[in-house]
Every structure is written in structure tokens, then in C-alpha cells.
Amino acid sequence: MSNPLFRSQLKSKKSRARLGEIHTSHGTIKTPAFVPVGTKGTIKTLLPSLIPEIGIQVAFVNTYHLVIHPGVDVISKSGGIHNFSQLNIPLMSDSGGFQVFSLAGKNKSQTQNPKSKTNSKSQNINKENDSRGANIRGEEQPLVVKISEDGVKFRSTYDGQLIEFTPKKSMEFQRKIGADLNMAFDECTYYPTTHEYAEKAMDRTHEWLKRCIEWRLANSDQRLETTNTNSQSQVASCQYLYGIIQGGTYEDLRKKSAEFVVSQDVDGVAIGGISVGETKKEMRDQIKWVADYLPKDKPVHLLGVGQIDDIVDLVKYRIDTFDCVEPTRLARMGTIYKIANIKFQMSNQFSKNKGDLSKRDNVDITRTEFKNNLEPVDIDCNCYVCTHFTKAYLHHLFKQREILGYNLATYHNLWVMERLMERIRDEIGNDNI
Fold first, then answer.
1. Phi and psi based region of residue 47 (left: phi greater than 0; alpha: psi -120 to 50; beta: remaining)
2. 94 annotated as belonging to a binding site for a ligand
3. Would the annotation count 334 as a binding residue?
4. Which cofactor does it need (predicted)?
5. Cα first-last separation, the chain
6. What secondary structure does DSSP assign to 295-356, as a single string?
7. pLDDT per position as a tens digit, 81-119
8. CATH number assigned to the domain covering 6-324
9. Exposure of 203 by Cβ count < 10 A (0-12 exposed, 13-18 middle, 19+ buried)?
10. Active-site residues: which are they?
11. Binding site annotation covers 98?
């Protein structure tokens, strides 16, 4: 039986890369695709009306943040997150698992092996991980009160309210939010972690996936409750469930988790716990380990990965969608992507000397050298920003902390990401990837 969510259209002769389509109630996503993060129901600084102009196909919202504020009931009564936010494109929602475990991971890593000689080093790594994790999924870290086999209790960073996340609660929250593609509740392990704890977290993730599936089967006929008579979200709205592969940096656990998740009654598969502090080699290894297990008839999402070199490398392992906050986060810091990076990275995709291109060749528009530079923001780019404004103007906006500067930089960076994905789809179609 064919999957109503996903249709694979073409497989590369050179790798596992493929072209496909994800069909949702709010539109079709041509894959491979980049997924900008709209954590709190907004792609920060960007008007929803600009989304079609840039070519954004899909965005990611976060259950944890939306539960805290404004609360899922008001979103549900408005007709769901699409109507509430006017993000009229397919949306993914995180389960909340990443947030509720990211802070707890720091505490565990410091107490897990107090006699270890690498304890101080681990603490330093975890400080970096906390920052990187926040960049991937949002700013505020929860105040975890209790973690058990049933779920997690934590204090809201907004008003101190005690909130419980369980597989059932996560599914209920996501149903009320109304995103098209939902993630099963999982435990995202911290880095570095022991094999023992990674296995325990993986087993818990698997058990929670089964509970998420059970809840979905028991509530498959539910629809969004809405008091908004103008809402169209209640009509023909269908939500799909992704199971998440975990297992830390351990090959045996990653393969075991992949085999289990793919065997379950899920509509799509996500790979989690990647890019939480490990090296790029370790990250790529974790994808290679599970590549043979990834489904051919379901979409595959890679959570929290979105640098240009990573995307170009990892589409070769049957990854269909990538989410990451980095393009928008860096934009608000004044970091401007160069569209020439796409051509460079594509031409060097098989080079053994790959670097972190997204950080190496970007432009820091806040530098004094751009104060009087009247060249386009990116001379090689034909987006609205680059055909209307100069480096000097954008430099001026950032130095004066004008909100328009953040908007223009975000627009440009996401434009570059969309052109990257278009180029990747073309290269797959030509069997070059």
C-alpha cells in the first residue's frame, strides 16, 4: 500500500539521494528540503507574506515553547497554528523532548561518573552543548523537576508553572497545535554520554513511541476544536507521526534503534540526537550507520542539522528534510550567507578537504570595513535584499540595532538556503549527487 504522505519520484544512480514529495493538508513539499525553525509560531523577524517570495516550503514549530506561551488551547480555538500564525505552509512540530532533556543532560553528565578524570572536560563540553542546543531548538531551557519512565515534569521559564510532558501529553499538545508533521516524544541524550545511559534513553524512546502510536490510533477521529468561524484549518486537516531514531554515538544502538523505529506504524522517520556537540565526523558516522535501515517509502527527517556542507553530504544517505535555526540565528547576529558558497560546496562535494563553509566564508556585516561599502549585500545574489540595498545600509541598520536589519538578513539567508535546496534537487535529478 502506498504512503499517502510521501511519494519518491527519482533515485540517484550515484548514491541513496532521492527526489520526492511530501503531501500535507497545507501543501506539497518538494524534497530534499530545508526547514526553517519557527520555534514560537514565527520565523523570527519575517512577515508570513514573504514566505512564498523566498520559496520556503515548510517550517518547524516547537511544542514546548507553545505550551508555555500562549498555551495550546488558544491555538486550538483559533483553528490551529496555521490560522493562528498565518504560516500557510506545511508545518512540523517537535515533541518537546529536546528541551526537557537538554538541561537535565548537563546535570547528569556531571554526576554520572564523579571519579572520572575527564569530568572537568565533560563539563566544559556540556557548556558548549547547552549553547549549541539552544541554537537548534530555541533559547530558554526548562527547569526539569523530575524524569521518570512515564515522562518529565518541569517548571515553565515563563511563569513557573509545573508542566508535565508524557507521550500522551505530547501527542495531545501537538494535536491542539495542529502542525502537519508531528514528532514522537523521545529522549535526546546529552553528549558525551555512556553506552549504558544511551541504551536506557533509547529503550525509553522506543517505549514512548509505542505509546504515541497507541494514542494516535485511539484518537484518529479527533479534529481541532475551534471557535473561529473564519478558520479553514479544521477542514481536511491530517496529522502524520514521525518516530525518532536515537542511540547516541554508539553504532550498535543506532542500528538497533533504526531497525525498531522503521518497523513501527509511523508515517515518517526522524534521526535525533545528532549535532549536539559531537564532531562532524561523528555526526556523519551516525547517519552512515543507519542509512541501510532508512525506509524507501517514507520521508526521513534529520533533526537540528542545517549547515551547507552537512546538507550536501547527508542527502546522499536518503535524508529528505533538514531543520536548523542557524541561518536565521546567524542573520540576527549580522552574519550574511554568500550565495557563491553553494557553487563552491557543490563543486567540492567529494573533496577530502571540506571545511565548515557556512562559518568560513560568510560575511559579518557589522565589521567597520562595510561602513562605506556601497556594493550590493551579495553581488552574486538576485534576492530582494541584494537588488535593493548595499552593505553600507545593512551595516548601518545593525550598528543602530534597527529591526529592519534583522529582517533583511533573515530574508537573504533563507533565500540562499532555498537556492541551495533547488540546486541539490537539480543535481540529484542529473545523477551528480
1. beta
2. yes
3. no
4. Zn(2+)
5. 29
6. -SSS-EEETT---HHHHHHHGGGT--EEEESHHHHHHHTTEE--THHHHHHHHTTT-S----
7. 999 999 999 999 999 877 665 545 444 443 333 333 333
8. 3.20.20.105
9. middle
10. 94, 323
11. yes
Q: In the structure, what pLDDT confidence band is assigned to residue 161 with cuts at 50, 70 and 90?
A: confident
**416 contact partners, CB below 8 Å, separation of at least 6:** 327, 337, 338, 339, 341, 342, 381, 383
Measured CA to CA, the distance from residue 385 to residue 382 in angstroms comes to 8
CB-CB neighbours of 219 under 10 Å: 12
Helix (H) or strand (E) holding 104: helix 97-111
> What pLDDT, on the 0 to 100 scale, is given for residue 247?
96
User: 246 labelled as ligand-binding?
Assistant: yes
Query: Looking at the predicted structure, is the pLDDT value of residue 353 above 50?
Result: yes
412 appears as a binding residue in the annotation: yes
Strand partners for 35: 323
Alpha carbon distance 275, 280 (integer Å): 8
Alpha carbons 196 and 201: distance in angstroms, whole number: 9
The verdict on whether omega for the bond into residue 295 sits within 30 degrees of 0, i.e. cis, is no
Taking each helix axis from N to C end, the angle separating 195-218 and 167-177, rounded to the nearest 10 degrees, works out to: 50
pLDDT in tens, 366-420: 999 999 999 999 999 999 999 999 999 999 999 999 999 999 999 999 999 999 9
pLDDT tens digit sequence for 217-250: 999 776 555 444 444 444 447 999 999 999 999 9
Q: Which of 220-224, 258-262, 263-267 has the lowest mean pLDDT?
A: 220-224
Q: DSSP character for 378?
A: S
Judge whether 308 and 354 are in contact, CB under 8 Å. Answer: no
d(CA 378, CA 123) in angstroms, rounded, equals 40
186 is in an annotated binding site: yes
**What nine digits make up the cell of 58?**
515548510
Residue 324 annotated as part of some ligand binding site: no
Q: Are strands 27-31 and 18-24 parallel, antiparallel or unpaired?
A: antiparallel
Spell out the domain ranges in the chain: 6-324, 332-429
| Radius of gyration from C-alpha coordinates of the chain | 21
pLDDT tens digits for range 163-186: 889 999 999 999 999 999 999 999
The one-letter amino acid at 151 = G
